Amino acid sequence: MRIAILGAGIAGLTTAWYLARDGHEVEVIERNQGVALETSFANGAQLSYSYVAPLAGPGVLPKVPPWLLRRDSPLRFYPAIDPHQWRWLLEFVGACNRATSDLTTRRLLTLSFYSRTLMHQFVADQGERVNRGLNDVIDFGYAKNGKLVVFSDQAGFDAARRLLDYQRALGCEQDALSRAQCIALEPALGDPASALHKRLVGGIHTPSEEVGDCYRFCLGLEARLRGMGVRFRFGTAITALHTAAGRITRIDTDAGDIASDACVLTLGAQSPFLVRPLGLRLPIYPLKGYSLTLPAAAQAPRISITDFKRKVVYAPLENQGVQQLRVAGMADIAGYSHAIDPVRLRQLVKESRQAFPAATDYTQSTELMQPWAGLRPATPKGTPILGTTPYNNLLLNCGHGALGWTLALGSARIVADLLNGARPAIALDGFAVDT
After folding, report:
1. Comparing C-alpha atoms, which of 59, 39, 69, 73 is closest to residue 312?
2. pLDDT score of 435
3. Residue 357 and residue 299: Cα distance in Å, rounded?
4. In whole angstroms, what is the distance from residue 59 CA to residue 107 CA?
5. Which CATH number fits domain 2-42+215-284+381-419: 3.40.50.11810, 3.50.50.60, 3.40.50.300, 3.30.365.10?
6. What's the CA angle centered on 84, arms 372 and 344, to 5 degrees?
7. Could you give the count of Cα atoms lying within 13 Å of 78 in the half-sphere of its Cβ?
8. How do residues 261-274 score in pLDDT, each as one tens digit?
9. Residues ≥6 apart with Cβ < 8 Å to 383
């Protein structure tokens, strides 16, 4: 089949990868002048397969009022005259209960473990290509260095420890570590000048977690896809989908019409706008997040750290022998602007400097810290939207929130299987669009 992929972020490129490998003729349409220039560009870099619990949890709502009153809150809300924003918020509130959260977590873990299996297969194939002397290996800073979620209050740490048995029953391999054990595992936490060191009470360690630079992965995948004959249309904005007899018949763009046998929607936070005229409602709203990419000193963290209290992640990355530290966090419910809020940027720099004061040179200009903001395409419950639609040649792969990098390969393989008429490896209960 001739298949059009609508969007060239991590979701679109991985979908194109599997479809091209399956023998289809694939074309990727993207409004930007290159791949992965929006949400996939500088995300948190953690391949966090065991930490997929949704934002909508039973303990979230009591925290929201204090968060909204603080300028340095992990979550900020800017109300708009937008019925889609308010409907999303009401559905989010409705999902903030234990039963929904547990069910969502189980579903996300199934998808994330499947995605992890596929990533390990991909990395193993990379190693085989090196052994065969091929020069198209993708260097994306991949490392299996584990993840430590650190807690600043005893009550929060105790609650996390009580969840260990439940998480283990779902396939997670985790250990609760004391304050001293956390510092022994990650010496950067032992810096007496660190505010995080002073408030550290314990942590949950998952040795199997990984890191990787999503943007570099996408660049490498683009090169591999071009070698497989995949066509890219950059600088091409998709304006409408035309239908007849239950099928997509034409894709309108600002550069002309495109015909295909099938298409896959991977436009992130923009996805709802394209299919709304078709009568499809996708409950996706952007949560703006921020990141820095810092040149890492010898005293920077060696493993991934998540500060549970401040909702900031620290992921060490290697880029052609240069050590970096990706710092990411915060969530602004603030519409569709990609502009970097200088207040939030200063806050993220402050968080990093206080947590790991020796990790980098904080006197450098913020431009050298490579600041970035991206729109995470979130659903109220936290599950992505995958699979078929009432239009038999339109499939969906969108709404991954903060887990797009983690869930990318699994989600893409599922969509490719559906297009091939094959049964996906995991059940799609809870992932399908409501019609």
Report:
1. 73
2. 54
3. 9
4. 20
5. 3.50.50.60
6. 25
7. 13
8. 999 999 999 999 99
9. 54, 104, 107, 108, 399, 430, 431
Distance linking the first and last C-alpha atoms of the chain = 26
- C-beta neighbour count of 364 within 10 angstroms: 11
Residue 130's SS3 state is helix
Interacting residues of 55 by C-beta distance below 8 A, sequence separation 6+: 92, 287, 331, 378, 382, 401
Q: Which residue has the tokens 């430590």?
A: 148
Cα–Cα distance for residue pair 46/314, rounded to 1 Å? 9
Determine the pLDDT at residue 130: 72
Whole-model pTM: value is 0.96
**Which pair of structure tokens corresponds to residue 176?**
């609760």
Residue type, 217: F
Distance CA 69, CA 78 (A): 12
148-161 CB burial, b ≥16 within 10 A, e <16: bbbbbeeebbeebe
What is the rounded CA–CA span in Å between residue 300 and residue 289? 22
**Amino acid identity, residue 317?**
L
**Please, what is the angle between helix 214-227 and helix 10-21, to 10°?**
30
State the DSSP code for 23: T
Contacts with 132 (C-beta within 8 Å, 6 or more apart), sequence order: none
Written as six digits, the tokens of 107 are 């579903």
Over the range 73-95, which residues count as b (16 or more CB within 10 Å of their CB) and which as e? bbbbeeeeeeebbeebeeebeeb
Using 50 as the pLDDT threshold, list the residues of the chain that sit under it.
none
- Could you tell me which residues come within 8 angstroms of residue 35 by beta carbon, excluding any fewer than 6 positions away? 8, 9, 13, 218, 219, 221, 222, 232
Q: Which two tokens stand for residue 348?
A: 């993220």
How do the domains of the chain map onto residue ranges?
2-42+215-284+381-419, 46-211+285-378
Which residue do the tokens 């001293």 mark?
180
Q: How many CA atoms lie within 13 A of 36 on its CB side?
A: 21
